[in-house]
Amino acid sequence: MELRQLRYFVAIVDHGSLSRAARVLHIVQPALTQQIQQLEEELGTSLLHRSAQGMQATDAGKIFYEHALAILKQVADAKSAVNQTTDKPSGTVALGIPQSASGALAFPLLSAVRAAFPDIVFQLTEELTGNLTEQLASGRLNLAVLFDDGQLGKFTTKPLVEEEMMFITRADSQFACKRKSITLAKALQVPLILPSIQHGVRPRIEQVVRDQGLRIEHVIDITSIAILKSAILADMGATILPMSPLLPEIERGEMRATPISDVNLSRTVVLCSSKNIPLTNAAMAVEKLVLDLSRDLSLGGKWLGTTSLV
């Protein structure tokens, strides 16, 4: 198996066509086809099939595609690490962030990296927490913002903030609390609109509810934060979340956030990297920037509901 075969295969999947991939790779199509056939013979399985939509990965091909991306990224990182200097880091840095934290951190981070490190190609991806964990473990990501649920032992972790979760409704909701705070038991009597279990925030909520000897009786599972917002604004129920993903609506007065008074319902936001794959100078520079930025956002009151841990 050769690296060029991995590049060829990834290009075909990305472009959905042998002819387009051949043009991008600057090789003739028969040579490309031959290399893929050799790769499939070595692996003992078909990686691609032709459909009405073009060339697509088989089930085995989809698995191999993820591994190929991770391998190619690690090779690129290794080359970059050899050539770059600490005073002017360069290369590609891929960082993943969960949907429920991107509202507070994503745009400030993009702006900060661009200003501080113009030679770094910064790739910021927003994903479900479970997807981020897999991509970080495989090497497709250099860094990931995750939530410490006690299951991050395979990663190097650096705490960023402790983020309080609130009971959040539409401002004029029938479910809104009339007092300045609400108990967890009272909050659970309302139909709850919560992120699905793949989100890092959901297991934390479930754990606290169990620890209090309570149950979530009425819940609407929604994967998308955008759809969750729409459901709250339609007054289908309330949610229990940090303020950051709903901050624009809260600041505009469209939603109301009420503290939960009788339990410590919060999540620890951490920056993670692989214990097995060393960080490049560029990735280390971005890592330090994330730590500094999260501290400044928290202490400056721009990441509401958080306590800095940096």
TrEMBL record:
Domain HTH lysR-type: from-to ranges: 1-58
Sorted UniProt keywords: Activator, DNA-binding, Transcription, Transcription regulation
InterPro entries documented for this protein: LysR_HTH_N, LysR_subst-bd, WH-like_DNA-bd_sf, WH_DNA-bd_sf
Cross-referenced Pfam families: HTH_1, LysR_substrate
Superkingdom of this protein's organism: Bacteria
Gene3D superfamilies: 3.40.190.290, Winged helix-like DNA-binding domain superfamily/Winged helix DNA-binding domain
Family the entry assigns: Belongs to the LysR transcriptional regulatory family.
Record's protein name: LysR substrate-binding domain-containing protein
Natural source organism: Undibacterium danionis
